[in-house]
Specification:
Blueprint lengths: L1 H12 L5 E2 L12 E7 H8 L8 E4 L2 E7 L13 E3 L3 E2 L7 E4 L10 H12 L23
Length: 145
């Protein structure tokens, strides 16, 4: 009996598998899909700053912005955001709620404007704008001064 109780508890403590965002019918995803989770309070302010907004979902205090796959390449998404390859979200009791669906058939929010808006709100310098320390610059050879 103890073994059955222990097995039952172990089974209950196994985390649920992640859930993939389900896009509205008719959306074309030839670029693949990732998602960026941004806290709701930041997301409200970001929404008005972007030239185009794709599919956006709400789930447990985060808004999940659909971006093309690989939108994390060469970008360090600032805290408190969460980057989710494959648009996989932690399992919850309810499916995420679709807050915004764009006109047309492309579900994507352009990642660079989204990244820049988030950097601005969090006071983070974009990765490509960070200065390189003097110790990292190549030293000129004699006669090149």
């Amino acid at each position: 009996m103890d073994t059955l109780t222990r097995l039952s508890r172990t089974r209950q403590s196994v985390p649920a598998p992640p859930r993939r965002l389900e896009l509205p019918p008719g959306m074309r995803t030839q670029l693949g899909c990732d998602a960026v989770g941004i806290p709701e309070d930041f997301s409200h302010r970001i929404m008005t700053r972007l030239p185009r907004v794709g599919c956006v979902y709400a789930d447990q205090g985060l808004w999940w912005w659909v971006v093309p796959a690989g939108s994390d390449v060469a970008l360090e998404w600032p805290m408190p955001s969460y980057y989710s390859p494959g648009a996989l979200l932690p399992e919850t009791d309810a499916a995420p709620t679709l807050l915004h669906c764009p006109d047309g058939d492309a579900p994507y929010t352009p990642p660079i404007p989204l990244y820049l808006a988030l950097c601005r709100l969090t006071g983070t310098t974009p990765a490509w704008s960070r200065t390189v320390g003097a110790g990292h610059l190549p030293q000129p050879r004699r006669g090149e001064d």
